[in-house]
Amino acid sequence: MRYVEVNGVRLSVVGLGTWQFGSKDWGYGADYAQNEAATIVARALDLGVNVIDTAEIYGRNESERIVGRAIFSRRDDVFVATKLLPIMPLASVVERHGRASAQRLGVDTIDLYQVHFPNPVVPITQQMRGMRRLLDAHVIDHVGVSNFTLGRWRAAERALGSPVLSNQVQYSLAVRKPDTDLVPYAASNDRLIIAYSPLAKGLLSGRYDATNLPTDPARANDSLFLPQNVVAVRDLLESVRTVAKNHDATSSQVALAWVVSHPNVIAIPGASSRVQLESNVAAADLQLDDHEIRELTAASDAFHPVRGPVAAAKVIKRRIHR
To answer: What angle do CA 176, 173, 4 make, to 5 degrees?
Structure first.
């Protein structure tokens, strides 16, 4: 495992995302939540993964409980991160939710507590006041944000009066928006980008095509899986496969290796099994050369997915009238 040190914290460049723990969105079933999830966490820790990311909204709190049970005997091995659902996040609400997450996780202190997405109604000063109370009470060690623009991220830091360690954003060869300013800002200011959906929910694995579209809600409701996007991504996938052959690696490993090749960026892919976890973790030590990174980046630049509800509505309409 390779690690990155940011603001005094040492983190594995490949972590484990746990949206799928206890959530119906992925269609993994009860046995996965009750049994396989805990073995995935244990295997991740054995392999040197120390970042486990969850959120109170995942499975309606169930993911936090599953993670808590899984890390109970190995607390010192884990940098545990969770996220606040910012519905009316007044200072008192932030504080109450942080304490509730810590209780569900079974920890005295949450290593990283993140605002899951911006709330444009409640001032950021209120949200960070709640975070400051949690910091001062040692309920949390670090504050993070998620899905924030650079301007909002910096505003959060000003309101907190100390570093906001991380910004968790969607980032992959298929979704490059963070390259504009977030990734450079993190690299230049001792901050961290946590890349969620670093495999674009499996789109970059190459297992989907226009005749084999996903049916689980987590993917089917994502415009990346519109038929025209699944067709358009083929050239990018071919570039990924070419690099993968050079390393005797999988397409997913190459896509992950590209993400974590950037300074101060870590990735938190999910895993449906221990085998998939082990494959993801192996990507941490896959070294792409400069030429390969440029080739992959160029192929990514040429991929222009259709995004948004309007496009989705058009596709639905076409399917209805077939």
So the answer is: 85
CA distance 162 to 8: 14
Give how many domains the chain has, as a whole number: 1
220: in domain: no
pTM: 0.92
Residue 305 lies in a domain: no
What domain range is 263 assigned to? 3-201+250-288
293 located within any domain: no
pLDDT digits (tens, 9 = 90+) for 140-157: 999 999 999 999 999 999
| Residue tagged active-site, from 3, 28, 32, 58 | 58
**58 included as an active-site residue:** yes
- Contact indicator for 6, 192 with CB cutoff of 8 Å: yes
How far apart, in whole angstroms, are the C-alpha atoms of residue 69 and residue 196?
Answer: 23
pLDDT, tens digit (0-9, with 9 covering 90-100), for 256-286: 999 999 999 999 999 989 999 999 999 999 9
